[in-house]
Amino acid sequence: MKKIYFAIATMTAMSAAISLASADDQANGEKLFKSKCAGCHGADAAGKPAVKSPSIKGKTADDIQKVISTSSKHAGLKSLTTDQVKQIAAFLGTLK
Ligand code: HEC
């Protein structure tokens, strides 16, 4: 029985976390994107051939975490918190 309660609690916590991708997150994410990413990825996240940066529209928080930990171009971004990365992803998800 305990396991079932745990599973339900976990699912409730997860759906709460998903619904947290609110308008506030997107607005914060847009600010962070403009100050930390737009210089290389362009104001619309479409990428800049001049610095060989790809489009990052629609990238997820996982994609961003991965690039921060593996790409030397993103070494300066290690100070971003997981929440900030999620906010940036929430904003990138609004771009088409
Ligand atoms: C100094 C320039 C620079 C900055 C600042 C920068 N990027 Fe990048 N980014 C690049 C370049 C160049 C690449 C491609 C080569 C690589 O991955 O190192 C890239 C690749 C990526 C990729 C992988 C895309 C793919 O399709 O593989 C993601 C995701 C990404 N950047 C997200 C971000 C986010 C989010 C920020 C801001 C928090 C950011 N970058 C800031 C230059 C930059």
Portion of residues in beta strands equals under 5%
Helix content: 55-70%
- Rg (CA only): 16 Å
Write out the CATH superfamily name.
Cytochrome c-like domain
CATH architecture label: Orthogonal Bundle
Order of helices and strands, N to C?
HHHHH
Q: The biggest beta sheet, please?
A: none
Structural class: mainly alpha
Task: Report the average pLDDT across residues.
Answer: 89
Straight-line N-to-C gap: 45 Å
CATH topology: Cytochrome Bc1 Complex, Chain D, domain 2
Global geometry: elongated
Got a strand count?
0
Hetero groups bound? heme C
Number of helices: 5
The first-level CATH class name: Mainly Alpha
Number of separate domains: 1
Summarize, please.
The protein has one domain (22-92): Cytochrome c-like domain (Cytochrome Bc1 Complex, Chain D, domain 2), CATH 1.10.760.10. By secondary structure, it is mainly alpha-helical. The protein has 5 helices and no strands.
Question: What are the key terms here?
Answer:
binds heme C; 96 residues; Cytochrome Bc1 Complex, Chain D, domain 2; elongated; mainly alpha
Describe it for me?
- This protein has 96 residues and is an all-alpha fold.
- It has one domain (22-92): Orthogonal Bundle (Cytochrome Bc1 Complex, Chain D, domain 2), CATH 1.10.760.10.
- The protein contains five helices and no strands.
- It has helices at residues 2-19, 23-36, 38-41, 61-70, 82-92.
- The longest helix is centred in the first third of the chain and has 18 residues, at 2-19.
- The structure holds heme C.
- Heme C (HEC) is lined by residues 36-37, 39-41, 51-54, 56, 59, 63-64, 67, 71, 73-74, 77, 88.
- Heme C (HEC) binds at residues 36-37, 39-41, 51-54, 56, 59, 63-64, 67, 71, 73-74, 77, 88.
